[in-house]
Design brief:
By secondary structure, this protein is an alpha+beta fold. Strands 1, 2, 3 and 4 form a four-stranded antiparallel β-sheet that branches. Strands 5-6-7 form a three-stranded antiparallel β-sheet, covered by helices on one side. The radius of gyration is 22 Å and the shape is elongated.
């Protein structure tokens, strides 16, 4: 999960910074004096949601009135945590048995569709989709070699 959180963070980092820049620009246009201290953000991947929490402080001043806000927290619905759990199960089975039984996993997790595509070079491409939200996660597993004696 940690790798997935880092990938999400890398993917959205420029958008989060751009959002702060736009906020600053918009309030400056409205006559506010702004002091912005932006020190990045963290991503939390939780059941049924993703949370983005900034490490930031914003001070707005207009007509001798000052308002301060800090550490914005944005939460939105997502099934990515649940999808990642299914992906972890598939990867664990592939690593342990050089095979995964996606039909069996779909019986255990009926809210997911799992597609498995074998390529010519022993790579397997999986697509895990949450049926209701239509969120998808696609990943590949390279063929494995079973050690002698197993």
């Amino acid at each position: 999960m940690q790798d997935l959180k880092q990938e999400i963070k890398n993917y959205i980092s420029s958008n989060v910074k751009e959002c702060f820049d736009k906020i600053t620009k918009n309030f400056n246009k409205k006559g506010y004096k702004m002091n912005v201290d932006y020190n990045g953000f963290e991503v939390e991947l939780l059941p049924k949601r993703i949370i983005v929490q900034t490490d930031s402080k914003i001070s707005l001043t207009k007509s001798d009135e000052t308002t301060k806000q800090e550490n914005f927290k944005i939460s939105f619905s997502s099934k990515l945590y649940e999808i990642a759990s299914v992906v972890q199960e598939l990867v664990n089975q592939e690593a342990r048995f050089c095979y995964s039984e996606n039909l069996g996993i779909m019986l255990i997790y009926p809210e997911f569709n799992i597609d498995k595509l074998r390529t010519g070079d022993s790579t397997i491409i999986y697509t895990v989709e949450h049926k209701d939200s239509k969120e998808k996660f696609r990943f590949a597993v390279r063929g494995c070699v079973i050690p002698p004696g197993i």
